[in-house]
Design a protein that fits this description.
By secondary structure, the protein is of the alpha/beta class. It is built from five helices and five strands, in the order βαβαβαβαβα. It starts with a strand and ends with a helix. 35% of the residues are buried.
Length: 121
Amino acid sequence: MSQILVVDDNVNLSVFVVAALTRDGFHVTSVASAEEACDFLDQNAVDVLVSDVQLPAMSGIDLLKHVRIEHPDVVVLLLSLFADAQMAREALALGAFDCLRKPTSVEMLRSTVQRAVAYKH
């Protein structure tokens, strides 16, 4: 079973994402900050990280940079309410698997995570 880590300080969105991905049979953990994500990654094997770009203290882009260095085998998917072409290009250039604009449909999220898991394996 693939381990998915969701990073978002919006509790409602986290609950939505966790529920959608759990229904697909993934083991999903949710944290509210990039710092918590770093701690979790240091102690657990994660296949895919799904992170909001706008996080307190450390942005999703900064988290992506950290993950690429410290946990290069983790596939990173970014979500952003303020996604634009420039930010998406930057995220992809830094190694993100994909960057989706929030709100995204359940089908798009599930499909993208399934592709990320397939890419990982």
